[in-house]
Specification:
mainly alpha, 13 helices, about 75% helix, transmembrane helix, membrane, transmembrane
């Protein structure tokens, strides 16, 4: 459980810190927002950050030898994890209220009602057994859901604080904003139940994989919706690396490679998997790429013209993000089949190729910005 709580804490820091940093450095002017709730955003963000940091500290203290308060600290840590999830949902709602009003704000609030109820119920179930540490699992799913939810939060903040839709893109902007908000709330809940499962079950791995796939699809949809602003009818091109990876998987499944099974000196796959289990792929490249994707793509919702360099960077960075998420998801299994392993390698290769090519339009954008300032 310690690995999962640590992944949860790191995810909360990635979600909240960019918002507090942008406000503190005056890169985001909340005074321009007409909603009075803008005054509550920084305190709510700070409370969410504290509630996300304290559970790991409490869990570490509960492991000290001879600690008579171990059970109390463990229960308090679980309670704080659930409180943090509720605060993150409230923060997402507060962020979106900066931009929406009238009927939309009530609809956004209604979407949180079942998630809040489920969170409270999960909190009750998980804290009943004060000695339950639940060491099952390696934390890969929590790390994935926390990273993806952090990216979704970053997208929501970018759309609300920097995105201004023009008349022609108003429907697309609302769709991007609404879907990103919904997936943020769901991502927080998924991250919560993967960190502190309310019930022990023999099908946890399968359930976690389903949740991770849902989050992967969600962020892919967010990328497509945001990329549609500058790319228009060429938006489908961001899915090309994903399609190529799926074709590789279909080829490996449908066309068996017989010589691999009879290759002399080859170690038995089962023995090899037991001796060396591959680690899950890193999401650091995907995080950085998605940040650049948002910085360039979100302003195109306004009347700002999108040049060739802008469209090229949005296309390549969006494709790299989707391929990177797929690469990470395919490496979840500790002993993946041959077809999955080959598909993961393909997704890794395509993600890095897209990032490498995206450097060219990115450099052009930087040069144009310098020329405009001079």
């Amino acid at each position: 459980m310690k690995k999962r709580v640590r992944a949860f804490t790191e995810g909360v820091v990635l979600m909240v810190s960019p918002l507090l940093l942008a406000v503190a450095l005056k890169q985001t002017n909340l005074k321009s927002q007409r909603n009075r709730l803008r005054f509550g955003i920084p305190p709510l963000a700070a409370a969410s950050l504290e509630a996300g940091l304290l559970p790991f500290i409490g869990f570490c203290l509960s492991e000290l030898p001879g600690n008579r308060l171990a059970s109390l600290l463990l229960r308090a840590s679980k309670l704080l994890v659930h409180l943090c999830a509720l605060l993150l949902m409230a923060l997402a709602y507060g962020i979106i209220l900066l931009l929406i009003d009238d009927v939309d704000k009530y609809l956004a609030g209604l979407l949180l009602v079942p998630l809040v109820g489920l969170t409270v119920w999960c909190c009750y179930l998980s804290t009943r057994n004060e000695h339950e540490r639940d060491e099952q699992g390696d934390g890969n799913s929590v790390d994935f859901s926390a990273a993806v939810t952090a990216l979704l939060f970053l997208g929501l903040q970018g759309l609300v604080l920097q995105g201004q839709s023009s008349a022609g893109l108003k429907i697309l902007f609302k769709a991007s904003l609404g879907f990103t908000y919904l997936t943020c709330a769901l991502g927080v809940f998924f991250m919560l139940i993967e960190t502190v499962p309310p019930l022990r079950t023999d099908h946890r791995d399968r359930a976690q994989m389903c949740l991770d796939i849902a989050l992967a699809i969600a962020i892919a949809v967010v990328v497509v919706l945001i990329a549609a602003a500058p790319l228009k009818e060429l938006t489908w091109l961001v899915l090309v690396p994903l399609i190529l990876s799926l074709l590789v998987w279909m080829y490996r499944v449908l066309v068996p490679v017989a010589y691999e099974e009879h290759q002399p000196g080859r170690q038995d796959p089962t023995v090899a998997d037991q001796q060396q289990r591959p680690a899950a792929a890193s999401l650091e490249l995907t995080k950085v790429t998605f940040t650049g994707f948002l910085a360039v793509a979100v302003p195109t919702f306004s009347n700002t013209p999108a040049g060739r360099a802008t469209r090229g960077f949005v296309l390549l960075s969006g494709a790299a993000v989707i391929s990177g998420i797929g690469w990470r998801l395919l490496t979840h299994c500790t002993a993946p089949p041959r077809a999955v392993e080959t598909t993961a390698k393909t997704a890794c290769f395509l993600a890095h190729v897209c990032v490498a090519i995206a450097v060219i339009p990115f450099a052009i954008l930087a040069s144009n910005a310098i020329n405009l300032k001079s």
